[in-house]
Amino acid sequence: MSDTLRLLLALLELGPRLRDLLGDKWPPYGEELLELASRASRGEDPDKLRQALDLLVVRLLAEPPAIELVERVMADMAAPAAARETVTRRGRVTPTVPDIVQPSTDEATGVVTIPVFYGTDRARGDDTPANYFRGERGALSFGVAEVSVPTRGRDLGELTSPSWWRLEFSANPEKHVILKSVGALGRDVFVTSLKDSLAAADVHDALIFVHGYNVTFVDAARRAAQLAVDLKFAGRTLLYSWASAADTKKYTVDESTIDWSRDHFEAFLQLALGEIGAGKVHIIAHSMGNRAVINTLERVTSWQLPAVAAKLGQIIFAAPDIDRDRFIQLAAKFKGCAARVTLYASSRDVALLASKFVHGYPRAGEAGDALTIVDGVDTIDASLVDTSLVGLHHSYFGEKRSILNDMFNLIAQQLAPDQRFDLQAAGDALRKYWSYRA
Known about the structure:
The structure is a single chain. The protein is α/β, with parallel strands linked by helices. It folds into 2 domains: 3-84, no CATH class; 104-436, Rossmann fold (3-Layer(aba) Sandwich), CATH 3.40.50.1820. The protein contains 14 helices and 14 strands. Strands 3, 4, 5, 6, 7, 8, 9, 10, 11, 12, 13 and 14 form a 12-stranded mixed sheet that branches. α1 crosses α3 (26-41), α3 packs antiparallel against α4 (46-61) and α9 (262-274) crosses α10.
């Protein structure tokens, strides 16, 4: 019997004890063990099975209640290569942390590799980056995604992918933004890895990106890394990826899921503020993802965070797909919780106009007569940033040079609207907002 099969059988045998030790954290591990058993019974390639089992063991070794039990099993057999252990000065055995925790640049090609530290409540898929997470709901989990972003031959804001009409049939790191790998980490290892990475950063701030409706984990990670590069963000990039179905026909499914996801995002934000050693935590939320953020901020004043916790820096609501009146209600509750709150809106956002058609009421990301202006929020009408015949794309926040430059001035320079050259005051004394210069 192979070592892989012996270890798999041993872990299956220990299932009930591990379930008692891990409690609510056990279900995804149990499901993965059963999946591995099924794959083994089908005679799957032993190397692929071994790699998948190795990753599972690494994650179990990151769960403190399970460490002793799993170590005891592994002491009776050769430890899987991917789960080799390192011993600390205290003698505590811990799993090896992945290497992708620091950004790097290939000077020859100009390709930047960004570690995106993620939290997600998506269900697990297979072990390939493209299918690592699915569009169904799962348990809250953590890890690091490795994304490469070209800096030459790519316009600011472009989220480039292979295009068949350009005769591009495979991803090229010198041309395309690519999700290279995804690695799961237990919560404690995740915090330690992120804390160490942030301590080595030029700026000890964190930037959390929360994506919107109809977005896969792959595209969410790619967008987070692209924003980090184009905003020249010198801290560390985080992603909260809720379980969007990534299907245009499942808008109402995503609506239900983003509400379900709020507690998970709240836990992720509390972790970022209180446990990773950040100075400030900034948030960029897009479209439907704004709902998790704004509903969480409603409760932020009630949190019991450590005295050394980070402060909320810049909060950016980009094209928020949330009821305009609800946004105004909640804005009064989270006023003053961050250094600055900014809302980007547009009268030419087709996705939000469609959302208003469905709901019957204006969305907070609309401009024109429905423009949302509320005390404590800097509202920016971005309708003029695109004069093309096609109109303004729903993802304009991450694609337009003028808005990326504006977000850079917000996050890196901490400039108020009246200090940012591209903006001009609009409205009147009672309804003051900002727009881009024509």
